[in-house]
Design goal:
Alpha-Beta Plaits, globular, alpha+beta
Length: about 230
């Protein structure tokens, strides 16, 4: 399905082994409902690939605007973490996060798996990648088993603000990227089967110096209308 709104927040991370079981419970029962109930948050999805040694977890929040992820209401929540959140935050590792402007999105239905490809531009490649995004999304959507393609332009200044929650995970690191391409598909086999072609088409834009790709299974989805 196409993404809701005009912006999204993309979050990759790991969880310490001893906190992983509680993480899924906390994220499902408290954290995602708390986030998705924030004005402007429209939908949240959590994904996982248990085989990965790094960036095993991926979360996608869709928002009305990119600025949704720097609103006063959202910042107030970040600065007033619940007791359960306070206990969970030190378990986070290998954090990668950014708010993104949605520059292309297309698709119908919800797929069971999602590939994420973090993109780093060559020098001077930003405008060219933005110009190529819609055609890239339309072409990738034609691949067998693909149900949606969503491309975002990273704006880390929106989310890289010191809050009580970031202080709690101060040692996790927080890398950034230039853009992200999502390829949503029927399931893991279908998405995995097209990944070489996905990466080839991204590289064919001629403006990418590095791609970091992974395929995740959908673990939980929450719509704002459900709260």
């Amino acid at each position: 399905m196409a993404l809701k709104g005009k912006g999204f927040m993309a979050v990759w991370h790991d969880i310490k082994t001893e906190g992983e079981a509680e993480y899924s419970l906390w994220h499902t029962r408290e954290h995602m409902p708390e986030r998705v109930s924030t004005p402007g948050f429209l939908r949240g999805r959590r994904f996982v690939d248990w085989s990965l040694d790094k960036h095993r977890w991926y979360t996608l929040y869709e928002g009305a605007e990119t600025e949704t992820f720097s609103s006063d209401v959202y910042r107030a929540k970040l600065n007033s973490p619940t007791p359960w959140t306070t206990r969970m935050q030190p378990n986070f590792l290998n954090f990668v996060r950014s708010a993104c402007e949605t520059i292309a999105t297309n698709g119908v239905g919800t797929g069971g798996a999602m590939a994420t490809v973090r993109v780093h531009y060559k020098d001077g490649g930003a405008d060219a990648f933005r110009a190529a995004a819609k055609a890239l999304a339309d072409n990738l959507l034609q691949l067998d088993g693909v149900t949606g393609v969503h491309i975002g332009w990273a704006n880390p200044t929106v989310t890289r603000v010191k809050t009580k929650e970031t202080e709690l995970r101060a040692d996790t690191g927080e890398d950034i990227f230039d853009a992200v391409v999502h390829v949503e598909g029927v399931g893991r086999p279908e998405v995995t089967a097209v990944m070489k072609e996905v990466e080839r088409q991204i590289a064919a834009t001629g403006v990418v110096r590095l791609q970091e790709a992974a395929v995740y299974d959908l673990a939980y989805l929450l719509e704002s209308e459900e709260l």
